[in-house]
Amino acid sequence: MTYHRGGNTLLHALLWTGVCLAVGVLILAIGVGAQWPDPQDAGGQAGALRAELFVHIAFGIVALACLPIVLLFDGRTIPRKTLRPKVLAAEKFRDFLTASGRGGEEFLAEDGSVESLQRRPGGWIPVAVGLLGILLGTISLLGAVAASALLITLSARRSWSLDFACLAVAIASQSMAYTLTPNAFGQFELPIFLVNGAVFAILVVIGVIRGAREQGLIDTAAQTLLRERSRQDRAVAEVRRGIARDMHDSLSHHLSVIAMYSGALSVRRDLDPESVHESARLIAASARRSGIELREVLTMLRGDDQGTVIDPDLERLIADRSDTVELTYAQPLTPELLHSVGALERTTIYRFAQEAITNAVKHAPGQKLLLTLSWISELESVEMLACNAHIADAPTVAKARDQSLAGSGLGLRGLKERMEAMGGDLSVARTPDFELRARIPVPNLKEEIA
């Protein structure tokens, strides 16, 4: 079984057996008082009456003995006290799975359902004992209530074949009662037989509904738990994508610059000392900046801050590359207005410029990159445009680029995710020039411009 049974289950079984015994004794007393004549007046029927009374008592005792056995092995995979709407919540369900050794996905069936937690027939021994109790208890006045409880309990075990078997045994037992206990049942009458059969069918339906309700509670709790796990998995995946995006945005740009200029230095032998000095300065600056941003990203990952701590200084980024990058603010947008927007918007604009510069360094070295920031009043958005001409690959430049750089396409993908997460968009055009255009909504900037 999937959980340990304690004294409460045994006490529950004995309690119901006691209730069935008390009600059975009352029914037997009423039946005997109503149907049996005085033994002195019975005459030749006295022996038959005593034999019939023995059948009622003996068969009833057997049915009452079968009841606690079936209740103890009732086929449940989750304790009865847990199967309540206000108890079987996802948290309690998780605790049960952990305590019963099903802490992972083991509670799922192969098809991903939770049918592995439904009621089971419980083995052939309790089923056989239950059918015997129904067969004998239906005949006996003393065991009639116990037989009804057995009929409901077995019908709740989520097995249609067992449900039909219980109903068939009950009807067959009713037929036998006309022969074994004629004083209690009287002569065979079809209306009474049909009414009793309908009662047995209702008891079976009650058992089926009971089992379906329990399974519905299990399914609801399990599906809630699965949805929670799915949300957690999606959250973890989103965090991983964010980490990958931040690592790419923080390091890829600087490493690309380092790889480009160091590759050019290894190939170009005709550079003058001033050019070599400038390339070395850019390499050193990019290396220092990449170290700083790496520490900032690691600080963010180790802390509880889900944002970014990188200083999005767009002017400093452009100043380091003033010979190859030109930044323009289209009126009415100005650098001062841009500094007044939120940190998230500034960081996104910074990442856009950084990715545009990285792509230009990789794929169009030596070409002028034009960055234009403008305000679209109709959309209350800032539009970013990066444009650079294509380059005719010179042999030395192409060799240096191919040896040191390999584009993965993750930069534009991550940038697109950033824009869409803020309600903006990103588009790429490759003819006649390479053009990267993005837009992010900045509604609070409207008041500043007005």
Shape, per Cα inertia axes:
rod-shaped
Strand order of the largest sheet: 1-2-3-5-4
C-alpha-based Rg, rounded:
41 Å
Major sheet details? 5 strands, mixed
Give the helix tally: 16
Order of H and E elements: HHHHHHHHHHHEHHEEHHEEH
* Average pLDDT over all residues: 76
Helix content: 55-70%
Low-confidence stretches: 304-309, 393-406
Strand content: 5-15%
Oligomeric grouping of the chains: single chain
How far apart, in Å, are the first and last alpha carbons?
A: 73 Å
Q: State the domain count.
A: 2
Give the helix/strand class.
Answer: alpha+beta
Q: Tally of extended strands?
A: 5
Catalytic activity: ATP + protein L-histidine = ADP + protein N-phospho-L-histidine
GO cellular component, one term: membrane
Transmembrane segments: 13-32, 53-73, 124-153, 190-209
Domain Signal transduction histidine kinase subgroup 3 dimerisation and phosphoacceptor: 240-304
Question: How would you describe this structure to a colleague?
Answer:
This protein is α+β, with helices and mostly antiparallel strands and 450 residues long. Helix content is 64%, strand content 8%. The protein is built from 16 helices and five strands. A five-stranded mixed beta sheet has the order 1-2-3-5-4, covered by helices on one side. Helix 13 runs antiparallel to helix 15. The chain starts with 6 loop residues before the first helix and ends with a helix.
List the main descriptive attributes of the protein structure presented here.
450 residues; alpha+beta; Heat Shock Protein 90; 2 domains; 5-stranded mixed sheet; 16 helices; 8% strand; nucleotide-binding
